[in-house]
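Dear colleagues,

As part of the handover before I leave the project, I'm documenting each prediction I ran so the next person doesn't have to rerun anything. This entry is a single chain, and its sequence is reproduced below.
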Amino acid sequence: MAQPRGIRLLDVAHAAGVSLRTASRVLNDDPRVASDTRQRVQEAMLDLRFQPDAMARSLRAGTDTAIGFVVESISDPFFAEVIDAVEREMSRQGRPVLVASTRRDPDRECDVVERLLQRRVAGLLLSPTSHPHSWLDPRRVPVVLVDRPAPGLPADVVGIDDYQAASDAVAHLLARGHQRIAYLGDTLDTPTSAARLRGYRDALARHHVAADERLVHCDCTSSSTSAHVTSALIREIPALTAIFSATTRASLGVVPALHAGRRTDVALVAFGDFPMADTLVPAITVVDHPGHEIGRAAAARLLARLAQPGLPVEHLQIPARIIARGSGELRP
């Protein structure tokens, strides 16, 4: 329901039996307000359907209550999960989230971040491009990096251990007897992609399996590219028995190419879940890239930094696990 016309913070204060200053402190999350007083004011706000004037608060405080969130792509299943979790967490604090995408373009990233800063957002969540970020001063606005670090930017990072997750995925295939394991991943200009490739190579080395460079493809930036690469691999390298797909984009090309080529006997572990992965035959074994958990943790960290700007910089890692569904458990 819409707020009744004319309801002011003064009306809330009168209804709660407090001063206007106290009602204002509750509205601005001042920790000095007693819990029973805070509850009484918040209940009055709900009863009167009071909604604060966000623009007026922004002008008075010098910042908006909103949080900016800049991601690589809002259509990516992983980032869609992260955005959903961040919005849920921030809505509980009365903070809207303004979302923009970089499309992996550093110039666009710089532009959208600057626009958000001009909007005077209270804080910034950023999934950075691979280019240096010395242009972004964390003293200007609290920043938490999501999924990956940013070169030249000393800021909190919330993500997973990409190296270990990839290493575990390849070890999962090696334990089923596979040695000819292809790697399909993204370009190596992001720390996450580079870490996943290192995990793949080191897992093979630990199991004394020689890497075949014909099986390593770091150019699968789209589903169409990974589908083309997969079709070529199963056609040209009959000894291939397994694939580690290191991104969701790659997986969305690998799976249909295996089905089209009638090679669903090729074992597959995919990095990151995706719609209908659990309904295919065989169902797709995935490294769970926990978007909701990362989003919740990133939101919590930014809220903590807003409350205590002097917190030391931390790299928070959310546990990742393998969800065995069938494709990753096939044997050669």
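Residues 58-62 have pLDDT under 50 and may be disordered. Residues 198 and 283 are 27 Å apart (CA to CA).

All the best with the project,
I.
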